[in-house]
Design goal:
- It is a single chain.
- The protein is of the alpha/beta class.
- 49% of the residues lie in helices and 20% in strands.
- It contains 23 helices and 21 strands.
- The strands form 4 sheets. An 8-stranded mixed barrel has the order 13-14-16-17-18-19-20-21, surrounded by 4 helices. It has a 5-stranded parallel beta sheet with strand order 2-1-3-4-5, sandwiched between helices. A 5-stranded mixed beta sheet has the order 7-8-6-11-12, with helices on both faces.
- Helix 22 links the parallel strand 20 (539-542) and strand 21 (561-562).
- The longest helix is centred in the first third of the chain and has 23 residues, at 125-147.
- It is elongated, with a radius of gyration of 32 Å.
- The relative contact order is 0.06.
């Protein structure tokens, strides 16, 4: 809870972070002014000795205050002041004049041009600090009034258009995706008429807090590890209309995830003046660069999409592009089907043999999930796995893989086939605090010998939080499980960390194996990985073997096992068992 003293401290801290620009043709004067201000806590300074560069630098650096000399060669302080006041963005930027002139006409002229204050040279340190502090405090107050909504404390329409250009230019420079969400509460006029304007204001305050909380949730983008740089900024535009920027994202699908989250949190009942108030919202989405590449068009498209869904009853979201809407309609249908498919036992495990490179015998399998729908059609994992990761369904799906894999392995063991099995853990599963206990329970329920189970985790996931990872892997090892790093060579592991990780196996990524035939660099990488693993006492498995040439090369390198179409695709359990019987 903020207190008056904490707010004062925060305000003072913000002032001390202000950017102070000093424009003077005397470097010694600028140095002295900066030293005086550093003594009272200011840290951000821009010094301009060449007055011809002043306006360009002001536009580039956008200072919070300018300390301006009047008498300078080529371009005078008067000319700079006039240019600043004629610039729409800097019309009210504080400018304190530093001058040795005793001519009152100079002061009058500077005042007419819009000077904020005056200080005589040589500058008195105490007076300088006082004037700068007071000027910045006044600027902060005026900025708050001009740029922030009083009811919700959100940045307002002015800030929206200013920030939008910055965000759009950044997206162009970095070739990023950007989404604009136009959010309007449905039938808000009716709410005001029913419960009163004061209570209506409380609804807006609570809704703005809910949206803000929703977009701060770290898992909102689904694959959080791949979207850590994503940024969201919320604005109140007018009445019951809000706008949200979503930028530095990997694709427009993130906008749908955010919109769905906002729709859900707004639907939850509000407590206003002792009664439940129910609110819904309509959201229009426009994306850069897929639908438009300029600010005004994006604003218009998002607003039009919002009006479209609002006229159809609201309580939903709409992309402005028909193609994108069609894509998300299919995604929503698949998401709905996916949830019923688990209860209807449409998900199954296929098994890809892991073969000894020297003897050609099957030593184990990797369990891979497949979806056979009600019509018997196999749905590609590339279609449903990313969606499951995004909406969190990967957690129950991953649990199914662990249970079914352990059940099947125990069945084969009872038949005397003592093979191993590898199963994958996803990013979402690793974030589940109950994962270790769940694995322990699944192993106990199946009765399988844990030493025949290998848990595969991708290299990139392992390197996210190495210290936490070491502890987690250690707990898995205590259960008797083996640990494999999947897709090794693609995640830039530190060798010093690799030595600390309690792992048993490295799986060489198939992208390196695929290029063995015609790429000496890939051959060198594969050879190095096998040598590294051998030196560390680790087992090696090559993925994606498709040719005799690849197989022979890996044999020569003394790789231990391989998987790939050369021996067998992933196949149903009965087909795999038939392969075992042939040995």
């Amino acid at each position: 809870v903020s207190t008056p003293s904490s707010e004062m401290k925060s305000s003072a801290s913000n002032r001390l972070r202000a950017t102070i620009m000093i424009v003077d043709d005397e470097p010694i004067t600028m140095e002295m002014v900066q030293v005086f201000l550093e003594d009272v806590g200011y840290r951000n300074f821009v010094q301009i000795e060449d007055s011809t560069q002043a306006m360009a630098t002001i536009e580039e650096r956008e200072p919070d205050i300018i300390l301006l000399d009047l008498v300078m060669p080529e371009v005078s302080g008067f000319e700079i002041l006039q240019s600043v006041r004629n610039h729409p963005k800097f019309k009210y930027l504080p400018v304190i004049i530093l001058t040795a002139s005793a001519d009152p006409q100079d002061k009058l002229r500077a005042l007419d041009l819009g000077a904020t204050d005056f200080l005589a040279k040589p500058v008195d340190p105490s007076e300088l600090g006082l004037r700068v502090r007071n000027t910045l405090a006044a600027k902060a107050y005026l900025d708050q009034l001009a740029n922030y909504d009083r009811l919700t404390s959100l940045p307002n329409r002015n800030m929206f258009f200013e920030k939008f250009m910055q965000v759009l230019n950044e997206a162009r420079r970095h070739h990023d995706y950007l989404a604009l969400l136009n959010i309007e509460l449905d039938n808000f006029d009716t709410i005001n008429d029913t419960i009163g304007i004061k209570a209506g204001d409380e609804v807006l305050r609570q809704i703005s807090l809910r949206i803000g909380e929703a977009i701060r949730r770290t898992d909102i983008l689904g694959l959080a590890t791949e979207n850590e740089g994503a940024v969201m900024d919320l604005f109140r535009m007018e009445s019951s209309v809000f706008s949200l920027f979503l930028y530095r994202i990997d694709g427009v699908e993130s906008a749908a995830v955010v919109a769905q989250r906002i729709i859900r949190v707004i639907r939850e009942p509000l407590q206003v003046e002792g009664r439940d108030v129910y609110v819904t919202a309509s959201i229009g989405i426009a994306t850069f660069p897929t639908e438009a590449d300029d600010r005004d068009t994006l604003v218009r498209l998002a607003s039009s999409a919002k009006d479209f869904i609002k006229n159809r009853g609201g309580d939903s979201f709409q992309f402005s592009s028909p193609e994108i809407n069609e894509m998300y309609s299919k995604r929503q249908k698949m998401e709905s089907r996916m949830r019923t498919a688990l209860t209807q036992k449409e998900f199954i495990l296929f098994y890809q043999p892991k073969v000894d490179l020297q003897t050609g015998k099957i030593l184990g399998v990797e369990g891979l999930i497949r979806w056979r729908d009600g019509s018997g059609k196999l749905i590609s994992p590339g279609e449903f796995i990313p969606l499951a990761e995004e909406n969190g369904f990967i957690v129950p799906l991953g649990e199914f893989v662990l249970r079914e894999g352990c059940r099947q392995l125990q069945e084969w063991h009872r038949d005397g086939r003592k093979i191993t099995m590898s199963l994958n853990l996803s990013a979402k599963q690793l974030k589940d605090p109950g994962l270790l206990e769940k694995i322990r329970e699944i192993i106990a329920a199946s009765g399988v010998d844990a030493s025949y189970l290998t848990i595969e985790i991708t290299e990139s996931l392992l390197m996210e939080d190495v210290d936490k990872t070491i502890g987690f892997l250690g707990d898995l090892k205590k259960m008797g499980l083996k640990i494999s790093i999947d897709d090794f060579g693609t995640g830039y592991s530190s060798l010093s960390y690799l030595r600390q990780l309690p792992i048993d196996e490295l799986k060489i990524d198939q992208s390196f194996v695929f290029a063995i035939g015609n790429d000496n660099a890939s051959k060198a990488i594969v050879s190095s990985i096998v040598f590294l693993a051998t030196s560390l006492g680790l087992y090696t498995v090559a993925e994606g073997i498709e040719t005799e040439e690849q197989l022979q090369f890996l044999k020569e390198q003394r790789c231990n096992q391989y998987q790939g179409f050369f021996f067998s695709r992933p196949i149903p359990p009965d087909e795999f068992y038939a392969l075992l019987l042939k040995e």
